Amino acid sequence: MLQLVLFNVTNGLIIGAFYVLMALGLSLILNLSNVINFAHGNFLALGGYIAFVLTPYIGFWGALLVSPILTALFGFIIERLMIRRVYNRDPVYSLLLTFGLAFIMQDACRYIWGPNGLPMTIPDILSTPLSPDLFFITWYRIFMVAIVIAAVAGLFAFLRYTRVGIRIRAGTLDLDTVAVLGVNVGLLRSFNFAVGSLLAGLAGVLAAGQIGLNPNMGDDLLMPSFIAIIVGGVGSLTGTLLGGLLIGVAGALTTVVWPAASEAVIYVIMLVVLILRPRGLMGEEGMLT
Amino acid sequence: MPNSQPSGFSRRTLLKSSLILAAPPIIAARGETPIRIGMVNPLTGILSALAASEVEGARYTVDVVNKKNGILGRQIELLVEDSANDVGTGVQKTRKLIDRDKVDVIFGDVNSGIAYAMSQVTSEAKVFHIVPGGHTDPITGTDCKWNVFRICNTTSMDAAAVTADLVRRFGKKFFFITPDYAYGHTLQDSFIKNLKALGGEYQAELLPINTSEFSATLIKAKAYKPNVLLNNMGGLAQINCMKQFTQFGMQKEMHLGGALFELETVKAVPADAQAGSWDMEWWWNQPNVPGVADFVADFRKATGKTPSARHWFGFVAIHSVRLAAEKAKSLEGPKLSLAMEDMDLPPDVALQPGRVYYRAGDHQLMSNIFVGDVHPPTTNPDDIFTVASVVPGEQAAGPVSATGCKMVHPA
Amino acid sequence: MSVTTTALPIRNTPARPWLTAIIVWALLLTVPIWLPMLGGYTALAGRVLVLGLAAMSFNLLLGFTGVMSFGHAAYFGLGAYGAGLTLKYLTASTPLAMLGGIALGGLAGTLFGLLIVKRRGVYFAMVTVAFGQIAFYVAYSWDSLTGGYDGLRGFSRAPIDLGFTSIDIVNNDKIFYYFLLFVFAIATALQGLLLASPFGRTLLAIRENERRARFLGIPIERHIWLSFSISCCFTALAGSLYALLNNFADPMGLHYSLSGEIVIMTVMGGMRAFWGPLVGAAVFVVVQDYISSMTVNWMSFVGLIFVLVVLFFPRGILGMLQRGSVK
Does the interface ipTM go beyond 0.90? Predict the structure, then answer.
């Protein structure tokens, strides 16, 4: 029994790591620009599809490196072209914009690559399990977690130690002052959006290796990302990190006792948080209210 | 007269005005007005690959039949609408096809829920309705209707056919992984019923429909040591389950099986997930059945693809209308329905051995179920399935009384 | 202390509202006459009315209280299920079905509103989306009650028995359309009265400047919660009509993509105008119906509409017409 629980906790952390990657990107964009990126799941899919296209030429490792960067570039362009124009307006417009963008991107993926799923080849060494006893943990899962840890660590380091990162953090607290201090706020936001998209693209490449490619592949990750942010607390990246891991583990543990409820449990957690501690685990009162 | 109108208006006015202008010649050459068939299918959404194949099969057949003088001497016009996997849209499009476009026949939907909702509209409007690919049992069971016929098998039929084969070849101890919704429940219940009749035992796990992570369940399966693991999941979930099954090396200890694993889906998965024993509702590679090879070759020439069961559904749907119309000499709903009951499909439409016909009691097509093994492609990229046994539909379906259908014809 | 003025006139010039209302009603009453001539069909008009009502109900919250809910389809869908369940399990009575729908959706909205009433802005929107997905999840999981993924079936609208006569809304499309119109009329009349009442004016004040309204002693949270509840009740009514229209209720009626469509209809028609959402619904439904028959890639066009409206027509159709007149 203990072994089963331990296994599921590990599994939950692996799934949670995935949620974290997605939710962090979403949270980044939300915190600085006050925009809920409904198209975030589609950026994930885009990252996966770009990797699919690149793999025959530069291999899986190359695609892993290049695809998120290209996704980030795409995000940057979208932000400059469209999203930038609606910042100063009622938030409903940015929601509608990303919503429409999601429709367009999903249809574009379906149009370009077809409605069928497409397989993504991953290097053979990653497909093997750790050991006969630990048959359920393949090297690919370990690899995914390692990448996520690296990415998250990189993100936090970036935000803490680089000038741009510090500006982004400052901007989430008080954008006007940052602007007054001479920072090009527009460019900052665009860059921030690009970073968020990069994380989504990375998640997409990892997901593609695990579940293959599909125009709808991002949809199922969007809601858990939302919930990770709500549970962790809007405005706090650490909170998002914890939130993602929490719901991942909770879902996995529920699979042990009541598998059919494993999806419901994340909603239950969200409701509980909303009732008992509405600002989330690490949210600050007054953030984005 | 306004000069820009939606196409519906201009299409009809064109017809009307051309009729008026060309009255005498038209009266002489009867049958110029095309027969309209409306097809509602989820062309967008998760079922789009399957829906697209059905539409493609139907379109191909319309071309073929039109070249041979159509139905009752009239050309067929196929109007396709997207239900977007949403009931409201499916119902609305059905009403549109019936009220505005005045179709004679309706096909649809792959999504059983939508197919059912559509059938309520079509039976009220007394329009003949064929469900080519929606599997849920009640459509030709407890919810059967006088004007609705179905081509694909019921969920129970698939399960019944597969169980016998799996038990015979691999053993009686099963482990089920099933999606927790109506289709999953029906499928699992049907498997269990057939398994128990053969003296088998089982353990089952119900999971959310969109599960992507199966390790916990697969661990339980491994501990149970079944002969066969039944993967009842659908769509992406089915594929992920199989991938993880293979990744964990479980194929060394137990066999993998399930009900439907369609050609479109098989081709989309990596080689390590192309495994297990499943059933196809029609299969293109039947070397001993005359006519099949010619059909496959002709289809490939016209579309560049090898026909799948879904293509065949579309094909059969159009031909069924033709055959019923020729038998009834009319396109009226009630007359077509009576003509379809107990109607056999000729060999060049059935494209499989045995007697393939629409059972009068429940309007279900009794076609064969091809049970066999999926494997990575050999020389031919579409050769991913080897037939182990061919189960007659009637045998798998059981008697009409078991379906719960009470067919009531309009007065 | 300087006096902040509101940015836009919040009331139309006196003659305008009547003109818009007259035009709208003239068109709505004569639909069976002119719609088939344009290649439409009565069921399409029914859909416009139902979604228009949903959008107008939503707009009580967005356009008139200034609160953004992005999960309103939940109440719409719950209304549909409420009506369906009533017809299927309780009684074959259309009025009771509508009440059942309003009860289910309205209650859910009222309770949920209590939880989130202190939040604003995008956070509020996010939480409403999440709640919508909870409702969606319950609908497709609880299949013994709701029919699950396949939807709730096995019920149909019942003729309305008025004692002295029975209105056959089951088989006659046109009569059913007028029935929908009748309910629509009553609902919108109530909404209009509400907005013109002191309560409604308070909502407008909250929309314009919440902090100021708070300083005036207005209990903001209570008003927002009431507005949310009322909006959900009306949206649930629209949902129950939808169930009657289709004789079916399904989980997609709860999905956040429908929520997004309701919002775009509202914005496209003009969220500051009373009839705006209806106009937006009409345009959106008709365009979507038309485009989806033309091409499989209609989703791109719909997405494009979202983008274009946001970037170039944010005031919506009636908003642009209004601005044109006020000069």
Answer: no
